[in-house]
Amino acid sequence: MSVFGDVIDSVMNKFRALSNDPKTKSIDRDDLRDLLEDNLAVHKCILEVLTVIKGPQLKDWMQNKVDQAMREDTSTGKDSYTRYIRSLTGKAKSLEMNAPFGSLIQAHKNYIDLLNDVLKNLDTIVDKETITIYNARISLLALLTILKKSDVLSNFSEYLFSYLVRVSCRTQMEIPKYRFKYLEDHADEAAQLVSDLIDRKNDFDVVNQIEQSRRKFADFEFSQNGQFTKDKADFIKGQKNLITLATISAVGVGIAAAISLLGTVFGGNVVAFISDWKLSRHEKRKEMLEWMRTHVAVLRMNLNDLDASSPEYAKLESIIKAYDDKIAEYDEIIAKFESEV
User: Fold this and answer.
1) How confident is the model over 145-197, as pLDDT tens digits?
2) % the chain with pLDDT above 70
3) What is the residue extent of each domain of the chain?
4) Which pTM was predicted?
5) Which of the listed residues 91, 213, 271, 309 has the most CB atoms within 10 Å of its CB?
């Protein structure tokens, strides 16, 4: 059977199981908006962190601090980083070779554009205030796939940057083991996602693809008269050529994870699920704040070795100020979140 057929069968099986579960809930469009906005904020946050230091200063830090430290490192972190770079293709590979983090920076920019576009059109994409398993369309699966891919990109970027900052300070062994495992398990997937985001940006144009499907009357509901039948599954599979959602085929490498999210969204307490998601993002912001402070500490030590009247001193001082400004901003965001929970 085709990959598309397998996906539809898997979705139907998940919905069928959920329809027999008395704990099955609905999700409001505003809840989905919250998840998308929270993902958008994380990508913006990571992009800001990755672009505070750039150009010659970034290359100098990578060559004189990170690369040297990685040669002595015995953790799996450097292997994951090497595999990620080796697995990049096309423009993403060129961007990374031209400047450290070049591929990740562009990928996050593209994801920010993608999420902004989805949010701007969400009322059209999700045309009901409340989504149940019985009115869920193929377009919902596309949105959940985008959320799962968003998680992979943000988690990999955060853990990789954390590793590089830590290894440059020779404190990488303080990193929790699960993060090394995540980098190891997702290096190839992250490289493929980043390469696809940059080389095949149109495949991620979810809003346009949903509009095209709807013009062909192909954004099908999975339910038929409240049932998730084999006949309905076979009908959708037979209309494959009308469905232009690349998120299900070309981008659908992680489709199983998106399908599992159906159970998370509909199979329990949606409010608790969203609260947990936001709390997780809050913890990651705290981690990024810690990384920035660690990095600034290293930069300040380097500053002490320079002549205060030199151009290098002035450049490094401006970088430290940019980090200090960002640290102050994150302190405020974190304090505001903690005062509200």
Assistant:
1) 788 888 889 989 988 988 888 888 787 887 888 889 999 999 999 999 999 89
2) 85
3) 3-276
4) 0.80
5) 213
